[in-house]
Amino acid sequence: MPREVAEQPGAIGCSEPARAAPRGDVRTVPLGGDGPDAGRIAPGDSRCPFEDIEYACTYGEPRPASLTQRYRTRIRNREVRMAQG
C-alpha cells in the first residue's frame, strides 16, 4: 500500500511494518504514547491499544483543512492531551 499512497498527494494509508519500514519514508504515529514495538505490545507492556502494528502513510503534507489534515491534527492533539494528563 505505501506505493499507492505515495501516488496520492496528502493521502493517509496503513501498512504492516515489514512492508513499510524498508521504504525509509514512512512515519509512525504513536498510540497511547508508544510507537510500534511488537516486543512490547505482545506481553502487554505497551499502552498502544492494538495487538497488531500498522503504519499510516502520507506522501507530502496534506492540504490545509483537508480531511487528511484534520485527522492528523486530531491524532496529534489527542497524544498531547494524553501526555499532559
Task: Describe what you observe in this structure.
Residues 1-45 are annotated as: Disordered. With 85 residues, the chain is mainly α. It has four helices and two strands, in the order H-E-H-H-E-H. The chain has helices at residues 2-6, 17-20, 38-41, 67-84; strands at residues 13-15, 55-57. Strands 1-2 form a two-stranded antiparallel ribbon. The longest helix is centred in the last third of the chain and has 18 residues, at 67-84. It is flat.
Q: Strand tally, please?
A: 2
Q: Mind describing the biggest β-sheet?
A: 2 strands, antiparallel
How many separate structural domains?
1
Strand content: 5-15%
Biggest β-sheet: strands ordered side by side in the sheet: 1-2
Shape: flat
Topology:
Layout lengths: L1 H5 L6 E3 L1 H4 L17 H4 L13 E3 L9 H18 L1
Quick structural overview:
Residues 1-45 are annotated as: Disordered. The protein has helices at 2-6, 17-20, 38-41, 67-84; strands spanning 13-15, 55-57.
What keyword list fits this structure?
85 residues, mainly alpha
